[in-house]
Amino acid sequence: MSKEPIIRINDLSFWYPDSEHPALNKVNLNIYEGETILILGPSGCGKSTLALCLNGIIPHAIKGEMKGEVIVDGMNTKEHPLHELTQRVGIVFQDPETQFCTLYVEDEVAFGPENLCMPREEIKRRVFDSLKKVGLLKHRKTRIDRLSGGEKQRLALAAMLAMNPKVIIFDEPTSNLDPAGTAEVFAMIRDMSKDPEKTIVLIEHKVDEVIDVVDRIVVMDPNGRIVTQGAPRFVIEEVLEKYRELGIWIPHVSELAAIIRRHKPSLKKLKIPLTIKEMVEFLEKSAIIDKLIKVSQPIRSTRMAEDVVISIRDLSFKYPDGTIALRGVNLDVIRGDFVAIVGGNGSGKTTLALCTIGAFRIPPGKVFINGRDVTSMTRYEIAKEVGYVFQYPEHQFIENTVFDEVAFSLRVRRLPESEIKEKVERVLRLFSLDKYKFRNPFSLSQGEKRRLSVATMLVVEPNILILDEPTFGQDARNSEQIMDLLKELNMQGKTIIMITHDMKLVAKYAKTVAVMSDGRVIFSGTVEELFERPEIMEKAKLLPPPLMELTAIMRRKYSGFRAIKYPEIVEEVLAS
Q1: Which of 116, 138, 304, 404 gets the highest tally of CB atoms within 10 A of its CB?
Q2: Helix, strand, or coil here: 399?
Q3: Which is it for the CA torsion 497, 502, 503, 504, positive or negative?
Q4: Within 10 A of 421 (CB to CB), how many other CB atoms are there?
């Protein structure tokens, strides 16, 4: 690692227009050549703003008040034009659609090198190599708007790789990818991190998957300040002891070890584990394995055959361009269930959900809500029964303020304004959005937009709630808050349908799961049954969550080892 930093950030502060509080507050940070750093912090703490400062988008393209300086490879970002800076620092944004400039995959990857007037053969070579690395070679002639969300994320990564920058910033690069795709991207990052000439800056919630590749972690607080930084193990210990209130993600194995140490303080002398291998060693030294072994019993499905609230019968669907999204899908959702719909990118999950609420034209006799054919129901009748939270929050915003956005559905129902005010303010407080109630929804951060989209549906308290990636872009605290609220609604009798790539959420919250692959439902049953079917997981491009990987390893060594689907299970065992 070079002794001289490739990036120097000195007393950096930044205010967005009309904002009273700085998004970044006197940030000082050196980033060294060949280093891989992970930036953690709660939603809205300034992580993405900091990334935009590193390649000159702030202050050149995004206006606001900037104090302090950022020096990139010897260049002050205030004094050098954007096209020079972006050759040194490449960035893959959280929302890939914000950075596309062309219509076709191949053209998008070639766009950057072409603008640098590179030789034709060099451009072709870079396009081929970049698309091959991200698995999109077969789509090189495809229109970008025909790609799935995960494929668009891969394309953004390929376009950045074609520029071959010295510093590579990943702003949640796997947010739209299925678990297998996520593993592939992290494998690519792992390979890049071995190059001593490549510097990597990661903004990522999936800490479990990247902790082994990180040289240093930087933690930010809600006020846009850096509160601690250092080697991963040191920072995770600091978070556990001093900064738990920030609500940031830490490895599941570290969270599990922290729970065990609270019950057995003598284990404080053991180093906090960061990986599954280290967690196995920690468990074997903890003297609690006997408590985690139980009499093995066959898995039994708890699904009921009666009281179906949504019934899907032999449903197929083809998009106007000829793409077949659904192939003879059959699925029943039982009243009061908490269902997770999972599968790889492009497997048909979102299309199935949208057909369920009548968003697409489908034949009669295919989808029923509470026994009624959805094709015979009006949009208003469907909306009374089912609330839908879209994958991309922007797709459902129609009002000019956050307050009015949440109030919209209540006003359509002609509730008294006093009751609307009370309901809206309660929900805004619940989602920590009350301070933004007069802001335009489109001015919020991605995480704040997601919370607003969930709030707009929950305020009307539908009996069935469908959520497409409900915790997308959320920090640990907000994610837990949203999911605990859904769990509470489920306990009150509401039916929850969650589309997600996050198998940790599935393990902790779902009762049953439907697995999709190539437009078909290839499995429907309990979560426990799914985790016992590796062939189904592999076919659907799913990977078990970290603690279920740990469980599999421990079961090979200790017969009857209890399934640890989420850390709190061990808390329950040790407290009993």
Answers
A1: 404
A2: coil
A3: negative
A4: 14
